[in-house]
Amino acid sequence: DLDYGATDNALQERCWGRTAAEVVKWAGGFVDGLQAEGVAACPKHFPGLGRATRDSHEELPVIAAADLAEDLRPFEELLPRCRYVMVGHAHYTALEEAPASLSSVIITGLLRDRLGFRGTVLTDDLEMKAIRCVGDAVRQARSAGADGVLVCHDPVKIREAHAALSV
After folding, report:
1. Quick one: fold of 20-165?
2. pLDDT at position 167, please?
3. What is the pLDDT of residues 111-138, one digit of tens each?
4. Per the residue annotation, which of 1, 71, 124, 125 is the catalytic one?
5. Is 91 in the active site?
6. Which of 57, 67, 71, 125 does the annotation list as catalytic?
């Protein structure tokens, strides 16, 4: 993610730079280093969470930017080197009503069709408060084109996700 200077979005010290070029340079080095040692890299939070002014662990961020070209550039540069990508939870008003992690416009249209990504698409953790119902979110994410869904902590919600996948 690009660092746009927000202090309330939980990304502090987790962004790779203030420009797309910085992110490509520093995150690209990290991706290359991981993969040289046999560890698959998974860039996140597609299509970019740096503009968020809210923490998706606590609520659904709304990103009103009409032009996401700068946010997308690191993904355009790095995804050809990667087998995985994680889609974040944010509502991109210029693109779609649904959160990115549940959006076919973003996962299938933007990520798969426009950027040509053919690897594995994962959601961010569906237990985060940006998402309301894990079972519904699992079904929406899979329908939108996600290959895998993350449900990371609560055994009850993990069972709910499993049940949703079994339908």
Report:
1. TIM Barrel (3.20.20)
2. 76
3. 999 999 999 999 999 998 889 899 999 9
4. 124
5. no
6. 57
**57 given a catalytic annotation:** yes
What Rg, from alpha-carbon coordinates, does the chain have? 15
Are 119 and 111 in contact by the 8 Å Cβ rule? The answer is: no
Annotate the chain with DSSP letters as a single string.
Answer: -B----SSSS-TT---BSSHHHHHHHHHHHHHHHHHTT------SBT--TT-SS-TTTS--EE--S--HHHHHHHHHHGGG-SEEEE---EETTT-SS-GGG-HIIIIIIIIIIT---SEEEEEETTSTT-S-HHHHHHHHHHHT-SEEE--S-HHHHHHHHHHHT-
Interatomic CA distance for residues 72 and 92, integer angstroms = 13
CA dihedral 154, 46, 104, 124 (to 10 degrees): 0
pTM for the predicted model, two decimal places:
0.91
